[in-house]
Amino acid sequence: MRIAIAGAGIGGLAAALSLHAAGFDDVTVHEADPRVRSLGFGLNILPNAVRELAELGLLDALDRRAVRTRELAMYNPHGNLVWREDRGLRAGYRWPQLSISRSHLVLVMAEEVRRRLGDGALVTDARLVGLGGSAGTGGTSATFTDRAGSPRTVRADLLIGADGIHSAVRAALHPGEGPPPANGMTILRGTAWGDPFLTGSSMAVLGDDRRRLVLYPIETDRSTGRTLINWVAALPDADTDTDTDADGTDGRTPVLRHFGGWSPPGVDLARLLRDTPEVHRHPMADRDPLPRWTSGHVTLLGDAAHAMYPAGSNGATQSVIDARVLAAHLARHSEPGAALRAYEEERRPQMTELQRSNRSLGPERVITLAHHRAPGGFADVREVFGEEELAEISRGYAETGKFDQEWVNSRPSLSVRRRGAEK
Ligand SMILES: Cc1cc2nc3c(=O)[nH]c(=O)nc-3n(C[C@H](O)[C@H](O)[C@H](O)COP(=O)(O)OP(=O)(O)OC[C@H]3O[C@@H](n4cnc5c(N)ncnc54)[C@H](O)[C@@H]3O)c2cc1C
């Protein structure tokens, strides 16, 4: 079976590797960029997806430049600890949670796609611009163009749209949907070397009912003991516009103004911002849940299917799970249409629920609640929350995303091999 994937991001590359592991050899990933690359900002990959990356044989390579996250700690603007919990191995998972540079993750996966499936399996400078043919049961075709605009038609038995939040495959399946809706918040982010904070492998989230600052290390320099710290700030658009262009800064000033007085524990924020070589900014956006991901032999995966607000470390995590579930269903079913239906039936309802949960900021909701209930801060968190309330929010979100410890540790493996595939 000939399988074409649009997009060499985390989802598309995970799909290629998962399909290869399931016994499909004719798989090609088409990437719009002239190079396979990703910005070096951080990602947290939750243990459910790390389990899948480990089953694909990637964990050692990823571990070489990553931090195994041990703790999540959330604070209000007064520096009061609202909630802390163990993460990854420390929380009893059999697989770690990884804080990792997304460029390292993408490069490791791309290298493995080339090594396992051949150099020709990864085609760059190939932007999908339209779907051709019928999306009926007889396969499909897609048109790609390079930077010069030269078109090329690719025929395949199956096309997977893993082309991100601005997906062209999604637009072809759902014409008229329009661009992703922004929510009035601006995301600013960067990385800089700094001293370890909290446990040295903690993720810290600070905020109130509108603002957020997230900090975690993604790499450790063993010779100096310093860590590469990833920071992400989310601020209302209006709070970032004025200073940015007026005083020639690129967003550091509003970040410092909003968060500098909060003293993130152990972090010298002013220095971290000063040492950040480049600040990247973009509007916060997601996608509305879709009524269907599949049409004939075309389906969607990752952000193309279910882009969600960045709360709870789930976007990339779930794109890896999509890839593994899709490959497992294709291995089990002889008819691709039936496999795509089974994939969508399993994944779409879960992802719809998760997208909705992330619109109320998923597990970070506890910070919003803390602000509403005690805007002036508190001496003891038990004055503000019932005994089990915070644990229940955390547990409920993990169950929604199916990354709770019990399920991840005990569920059957998604490594399924197609009948008749050579070893
Ligand atoms: C601030 C922030 C923090 C985040 N933190 C986390 C986190 O900690 N943990 C987590 O799990 N997730 C996180 N996410 C979400 C995560 O980044 C995305 O969910 C993830 O990158 C989705 O992967 P993808 O492969 O589906 O899409 P993408 O990573 O967007 O990849 C899509 C690929 O398709 C290519 N492409 C686009 N259009 C075309 C086309 N027409 N033809 C061919 N190729 C095309 C693109 O160039 C790109 O390479 C965060 C997101 C943000 C914004």
Question: What topology does this entry show?
Answer:
Elements: E1 3-6, H1 10-21, E2 27-30, E3 42-45, H2 47-55, H3 59-63, E4 66-69, E5 71-75, E6 81-86, E7 97-101, H4 102-117, E8 122-123, E9 127-132, E10 140-145, E11 151-156, E12 158-161, H5 168-173, E13 182-194, E14 202-207, E15 212-220, E16 227-236, H6 237-246, H7 252-259, H8 269-274, E17 280-285, E18 298-300, H9 303-306, H10 315-332, H11 336-359, H12 365-373, H13 389-400, H14 405-410
The structure holds flavin-adenine dinucleotide.
Residues 6-12, 30-33, 43-45, 127-128, 162-164, 168, 187, 189, 232, 302-304, 310, 313-317, 319 line the site of flavin-adenine dinucleotide (FAD).
What does this structure look like?
This protein is α/β, with parallel strands linked by helices and 423 residues long. The protein folds into 2 domains: 3-48 and 61-67 and 102-180 and 287-360, FAD/NAD(P)-binding domain; 182-285, 2-Layer Sandwich (D-Amino Acid Oxidase, Chain A, domain 2), CATH 3.30.9. 34% of the residues lie in helices and 24% in strands. The protein contains 14 helices and 18 strands. The protein has helices at 10-21, 47-55, 59-63, 102-117, 168-173, 237-246, 252-259, 269-274, 303-306, 315-332, 336-359, 365-373, 389-400, 405-410, and strands at 3-6, 27-30, 42-45, 66-69, 71-75, 81-86, 97-101, 122-123, 127-132, 140-145, 151-156, 158-161, 182-194, 202-207, 212-220, 227-236, 280-285, 298-300. The strands form 4 sheets. It has a 7-stranded mixed beta sheet. Strand 1, helix 1 and strand 2 form a beta-alpha-beta unit. Helix 1 runs parallel beside helix 4 (102-117). The longest helix has 24 residues, at 336-359. Mean pLDDT is 93; it is low at 244-248. The structure holds flavin-adenine dinucleotide (FAD). Flavin-adenine dinucleotide binds at residues 6-12, 30-33, 43-45, 127-128, 162-164, 168, 187, 189, 232, 302-304, 310, 313-317, 319.
